[in-house]
Structure to design on (299 residues):
């Protein structure tokens, strides 16, 4: 339907994938993306607050059709909300704000796949909590180069260095990709017997065991620094020795195939620390997660 406030010439939508209204309406979309432009708790390189906008801008260059699955991702319908306004006070307030936003959209209709685009990794806390309220048997798959299991870091218990710790206090959590952590975190892992696949894995069975141990309902949290800096340098805390693109997408594909993925986040893109191509990689990862979670089952 023509917009009476605009002249009748072509316009480029400013949502994820630059979708027209018929593919981005909240009423019909199967997925909702919430941009969360925060980086107040980052500890090394800032800039993650610019990540959501960079991902949405880069997504306009993606082809809607996914070769791997043979589906047009746009046909699922993807609604992009306005950016969530940051709370500049106690980071706990921002956790609550993210949780409220995710709860609202996840409850729309019969339930929508709700993804958060960060922002620093503290955004995962409120998002995971909101899904836990909907799915009491939820488990979180936390894919990150760092354990994020500090009880407190740089004066807050609600920052990017404590995201997995806060989640672990509320529901089961499994970690994949860890290759840097503090002694405090290693002791917590051992004491709580948290499943961790350090990277690179010692053997293929480590990944198999973690995925096999996930319950039916899973929330996926991805920190882009899990990728090797050769592929993704545009993050706040790069760590050598990371995953390659096909390793990461292979894990995501398998989990989405074998479990019910109820929501996700993709965090820590700091676009100024890399090239435009790295924002494109981040946008492609969001796109692939939607495709895997909503696409047909494959062999």
């Amino acid at each position: 339907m023509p917009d009476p406030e605009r002249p009748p010439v072509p316009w480029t939508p400013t949502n994820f994938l630059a979708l027209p209204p018929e593919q981005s309406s909240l009423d019909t979309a199967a997925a909702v993306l919430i941009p969360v432009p925060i980086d107040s708790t980052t500890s090394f390189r800032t800039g993650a607050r610019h990540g959501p906008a960079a991902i949405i801008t880069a997504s306009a260059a993606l082809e809607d059709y996914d070769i791997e699955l043979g589906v047009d991702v746009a046909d699922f319908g993807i609604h992009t909300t306005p950016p969530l306004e940051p709370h500049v006070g106690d980071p706990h307030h921002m956790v609550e704000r993210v949780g409220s936003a995710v709860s609202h959209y996840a409850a729309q209709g019969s339930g929508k796949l709700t993804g958060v685009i960060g922002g620093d990794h503290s955004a995962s806390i409120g998002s995971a909590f909101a899904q836990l309220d909907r799915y009491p048997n939820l488990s979180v798959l936390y894919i990150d180069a760092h354990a994020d299991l500090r009880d407190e870091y740089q004066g807050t218990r609600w920052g990017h260095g404590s995201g997995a710790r806060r989640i672990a206090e509320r529901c089961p959590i499994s970690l994949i990709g860890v290759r840097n952590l503090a002694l405090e975190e290693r002791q917590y892992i051992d004491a709580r017997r948290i499943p961790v696949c350090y990277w690179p894995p010692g053997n293929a069975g480590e990944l198999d065991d973690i995925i096999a141990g996930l319950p039916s309902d899973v929330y996926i949290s991805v920190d882009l620094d899990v990728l090797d800096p050769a592929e993704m340098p545009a993050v706040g805390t790069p760590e050598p020795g990371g995953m390659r693109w096909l390793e990461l997408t292979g894990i995501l594909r398998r989990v989405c195939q074998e479990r019910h993925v109820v929501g996700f986040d993709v965090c820590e893109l700091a676009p100024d620390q890399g090239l435009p191509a790295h924002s494109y990689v981040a946008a492609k990862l969001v796109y692939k997660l939607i495709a895997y979670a909503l696409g047909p089952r494959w062999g």
